[in-house]
Amino acid sequence: VQLQASGGGSVQAGGSLTLSCAASGNFFSINAMGWYRQAPGKERELVARITSDGRTKYGDSVKGRFTISRDNAKATVYLQMNSLKPEDTAVYYCNVGSDLMIPGYWGQGTLVTVSS
To answer: For 82-93, what is each residue's pLDDT tens digit?
Structure first.
């Protein structure tokens, strides 16, 4: 499985960004797609994941601000990030796997920087 992420960048606090991640290759075992993030000096944490039937899981710090969606036909997952805060600054990693709760394949990270 290969993952191609895009959409990172710099934005001011309160702004919005959309990340996307397209998967290619062997999809047989892929059910869940989503995002994790890692800020400097911190552990990698869940941002949001979504299954092929639309079940979602969000990290507590992004609930109500971020929305995850996916296009199954395109094997692409999107993360709409609104009301961004400086503490959202991190490298965001796309991840796909067979289970909503368990990370699988990792994509390359994309940097999101939120300035105050």
So the answer is: 999 999 999 999
Q: How many Å separate Cα 114 from the centre of its chain? A: 16
**Residue listed under structure tokens 């639309």:** 54
What's the confidence (pLDDT) of residue 26? 75
Q: Where do we find the tokens 């979602």?
A: 56
Contacts (Cβ under 8 Å, ≥6 apart) of 97: 29, 30, 31, 32, 103, 104, 105
- Which residues have CB under 8 Å from 53's CB, separation 6+? none
